[in-house]
Amino acid sequence: MRTHDRLRIAIQKSGRLSDPARDLLARAGLSFRESRDRLFCYGESLPIDLLLVRDDDIPGLIAEGVCDLGVVGQNVLAEQAAEREAAGQDEAYQIVRSLGFGRCRLSVAVPNEWEWSGNARLDGTRIATSYPNLLTRWLREQGIAAEAVVLSGSVEIAPRLGKAESICDLVSSGATLQANQLKEVAVILESEAVLAGPAKPFADVRADLASMLLRRLDGVLSVKA
Ligand code: ATP
Ligand code: ZN
User: Fold this and answer.
1) Which residue in 75, 152, 211, 214 is deepest, having the highest Cβ count within 10 Å?
2) Model confidence over 48-57: pLDDT tens digits?
3) Secondary structure letter of residue 15 according to DSSP
4) Residues in domain ATP phosphoribosyltransferase catalytic (predicted)?
5) Is the CATH code 3.40.50.720 the one for domain 104-190?
6) 83 vs 25: CA distance, rounded Å
7) 97 sits in which H/E element
8) Domain ranges within the chain, ordered by starting residue
9) CA-based diameter of the chain, in Å?
C-alpha cells in the first residue's frame, strides 16, 4: 500500500495528450525527476508525482485508487463510466476540470455514397467502434436497431473489409474519414481532455494537495481562455 501523503496523477505516456498535459502541469509550477524506466516522475517542487500510462488505463487506475487524478479524454472516461453503469457498478469518477485541449468528437460516419435520410438508415446495420458502451447507449436512446461491432483499432477501414457498414469513431479534422470515403452523420459525444478524479472526495492530506493544484491550474487555464 502506498502512503497518502503525496498526490499521484496519471497522464498519457505517449500520444496526443502527453505534451499538453505535461505542459499544463509545468505551467502550474510542478517539476519532476523522471525514473529510469520512464514510467514514474517524482515531484520535486511539490509532493505531486506522475504515472505515465496508456490513456485507456487511466479511469481504471483512478477507480482502483492506484492514482488520485488523471488527465484523460472525456471520450475514454465516458466509455468506461458507461461500461461500469451497464455492469451495475457504482460511479467511480468525476470530471474535476475541463482542460481545453484534445478536442474531438465521437461520431457516426457512413459511406459517402449513402443517401442520408436520418438515423433510421442505420436500422439493421452493423457499426464498427472502439466505444461499444457509448454507441449502444446512443442507439438505445435514438431507438435504432443496429449492432455495435467492437474493434480496438483501425475502425475506419471496417466498412471496406466488410466487417460493418458504418463506423462510430473519434473525429477532429475529418481528414481520416475523407481518406476512407466516409461522411459524418451524427455526433454522439463532444470531447476534450479533462482532469478526472474519484467520485468520493479525499479524506487526507491529498485533499489539500488537490485544492492547491486546482488553484494553480485555474490560474493557468484562465490565462489561456
Ligand atoms: P495510448 O497508447 O495511450 O492508448 P491512443 O492511441 O489511444 O494512445 P491517442 O491517439 O494519443 O491515443 O489519443 C488520445 C486522446 O486524444 C483520445 O482519446 C482523444 O481524447 C484525443 N483526441 C483528440 N483528437 C483526436 C483524434 N482526431 N483522434 C483520436 N483521438 C483524438
Ligand atoms: Zn488509448
Assistant:
1) 75
2) 999 999 999 9
3) S
4) 54-217
5) no
6) 29
7) strand 93-98
8) 7-102+192-224, 104-190
9) 59
pLDDT in tens, 113-147: 999 999 999 999 999 999 999 999 999 999 999 99
Give the burial string for 87-121 (b: 16+ CB within 10 Å, else e): eeeeebbbebbebebbebbbbbbbeeebeeeebeb
ipTM, 2 dp: 0.97
CATH for 7-102+192-224, options being 3.40.190.10, 3.90.226.10, 1.25.40.340, 3.30.1490.20: 3.40.190.10
CA 105, CA 186: separation in Å to the nearest integer? 10
Contact 201, 207 (CB under 8 A): yes
Return the residue whose CA atom lies nearest to atom 3 of ligand 1.
54
- Interatomic CA distance for residues 176 and 198, integer angstroms: 34
What whole-number distance in Å separates Cα of residue 39 and Cα of residue 18? 13
Grid cell, residue 132, equals 461499444
List, as ranges, residues with CB under 5 A of the ion ligand 2: 55-56
Q: Does the fold of domain 104-190 match that of domain 7-102+192-224?
A: yes
pLDDT of residue 36: 81
User: 146: CA distance to ligand 1 center in Å?
Assistant: 26
**How far does residue 4's CA lie from ligand 1's centre (Å)?**
30
Closest residue by Cα to atom 14, ligand 1, is: 16
Listed residue (190, 95, 55, 162) closest to 149, CA to CA: 162
Helix (H) or strand (E) holding 160: helix 158-161
Residue 192 Cβ contacting ligand 1 at under 6 Å: no
Please provide residue 44's backbone torsions phi and psi, each rounded to the nearest 5 degrees. Answer: -95, -40
